[in-house]
Amino acid sequence: MLINGRNEVHKKGIDQQSVLVHFFQESFANEMGINPSMIFGPAPPEPKQILELTNTKAVLILDNAHGPVGGSVKETLKNGEYKLLLNFPGLHQTRTLADVIRYNIDQLIAN
Predict the structure, then answer these.
(1) Closest Cα partner for 31 from 3, 53, 11?
(2) Looking at residue 52, what is its pLDDT?
């Protein structure tokens, strides 16, 4: 599953884009071949950090669904796509960690 996910991320070129990643999603992003431009959270970013995150001109923001804090960055990066990823089962009919991984991969590769 992880290898297929990584291949899909690569096919879509996500691994070549500027991506901002929530602290709790960094391991997953790395497993998918994404080298984050910057990591944010788990606390909400302060104004100086929002400016730094915005200056990356990232095209994708991967926030954590169980404690999203990237909304302010989403507002300043008008062209950045914002996606919420899970870090444990329960939401969106996920019951196992495999479900969580599949859900997150689907979120990454969805347009």
Answers:
(1) 3
(2) 95
24-51 exposure pattern, b = at least 16 Cβ within 10 A, e = fewer = bbeebbebbebebbbebbeeebeeebbe
Residue 40, strand partner residues: 22
> From the CB of residue 76, how many other CB atoms can be counted at a distance below 10 Å?
13
| Domain range annotation of the chain | 17-109
pLDDT band at 86 (very low <50, low <70, confident <90, very high): very high
Mean pLDDT of 13-34: 96
Model confidence at 2: pLDDT above 70:
no
The domain covering 17-109 belongs, at the CATH homologous superfamily level, to: Nitrogenase molybdenum iron protein domain (3.40.50.1980)
User: Do the Cβ atoms of 73 and 45 come closer than 8 Å?
Assistant: yes
As a whole number of angstroms, the distance between CA 24 and CA 104 comes to 13
